[in-house]
Amino acid sequence: MYRIALCDDETEELDKAEQMLKNYEKNHPQINLMVERFQNADELLYKIKEKNYMPDVVLLDIYLPKMLGTKAAGELRSMGNKSKIVFLTSSREHALEAFRVDASQYLVKPVSEQELSAVLDKLLEVVHEERKKYLLLRIEGRLSKIAVKDIIYCEAQGKTQCFYLADGSHCSFNKTMTAFYDMLCGYREFVRVGVAYIVNMEHIESLNSRELVMDNGKRIYPPRGSYQPLREKYLDYYCTDNRE
Fold first, then answer.
1. φ and ψ at 132, to 5 degrees?
2. Share of the chain above pLDDT 70, in %
3. How far, in whole angstroms, is CA 124 from its chain's centroid?
4. What's the burial of 63, exposed, middle or buried (CB within 10 Å: 0-12/13-18/19+)?
5. CB distance 143 to 79 below 8 Å
6. Other residues' Cβ atoms within 10 Å of the Cβ of residue 41
7. Which pLDDT score, from 0 to 100, does residue 76 have?
8. What is the per-residue pLDDT across 25-41, written as a single tens digit (0 to 9) for each?
9. 12 with 43: CB under 8 angstroms?
10. Around Cβ 60, how many Cβ atoms within 10 Å?
């Protein structure tokens, strides 16, 4: 399922866009879209900021009441939102500003169904690939998108799991170590070390029978009997050609 946010102050334009999305679904039966409509930027920003709404794609008009769509997009980016933004507008005037906020596409109205379909084909494929590389976790009451490659290791701290990221930050959340490993086991780079740690082999700096040294300086001491299978997994990971 993909979440699509439509934001336009004109009901007729919302209706047109929504109908094109329905037609897109009919032509792509393997794709399920959940569409939400907003008639001003404030409604959209509020739902994203306060209600943990995370659309995959935002179809955004530029000429909105009170706030230009480009300014609204800037607000989204300042909140750390990484939704794919497609501007649908009647003017080319704001194209440069649109791409300064990392817009994925800038379409001038009237937008044809073929144009929108081509854009969705490209963006939903990107979203699909990105979903393989990110985890969506509820941290401190908010949904957060965490890049898998940035997770150095995870440590069990009682009933809480704490994972440490490449930028030096760390996050805690309430989930069992087994449940967290179930989320990560599809990624070859992750391996369990005893019952207390999950480590990303991409971030192992050195490994011997006494300790693992991660590239952030963390030292992890493998429990008795765990070194040999850990070493074999590490060598297998680095000796295969399908690392991504």
1. -75, -15
2. 98
3. 13
4. middle
5. no
6. 23
7. 92
8. 999 999 999 999 999 99
9. no
10. 27
Which pLDDT tens digit goes with each residue over 126-164?
998 887 788 888 777 777 788 888 999 999 988 788 999
Which amino acid appears at position 16 of this protein?
A: K
Which residue matches tokens 């609204």? 72
Q: What is the pTM of this model?
A: 0.65
Angle between helices 69-78 and 41-50 (to 10 degrees): 10
- Which residues make beta-bridge pairs with 191? 199
SS (H, E, C) the chain: CEEEEEECCCHHHHHHHHHHHHHHHHHCCCCCEEEEEECCHHHHHHHHHHCCCCCCEEEECCCCCCCCHHHHHHHHHHCCCCCEEEEEECCCCCHHHHHHCCCCEEEECCCCHHHHHHHHHHHHHHHHHHHCCEEEEEECCEEEEEEHHHEEEEEEECCEEEEEECCCCEEEECCCHHHHHHHHCCCCCEEEECCCEEEEHHHEEEECCCCEEECCCCEECCCCCCHHHHHHHHHHHHHCCCCC
